[in-house]
Amino acid sequence: MVQRMLWALAGVALVAGVVLFARGDYTVSGGCGLVALLAVLGAGTARRERDRRAFESRFGSVDALRAELDRERFRAIEDQHGRPAAIKALRQTYPGLTLSDANDLMASSV
Fold this sequence. Notes:
Elements: H1 2-23, H2 26-59, H3 62-68, H4 71-81, H5 83-93, H6 99-108
């Protein structure tokens, strides 16, 4: 919900900024651009926080995920496409997983 509101705020601020820029009010237009940027950053943070909470409620820890991880699937991806592709697939499968945790999982258990 917060994420949608922030995206809406970003859209409104961006449109207002463009209109004000076209009218020649550069200072307020810049302020609208700044509001839009901050709203987009906030929406991204809200999404990551939501994913992190979902991950923690499902697994509790990275060690719990390690116990149920389909190692063969991610090993096959790594063999065919390289480690970055395997890490990307791991993070897409488990959205709350941080980049460093995904890298550690690939290095240690897969």
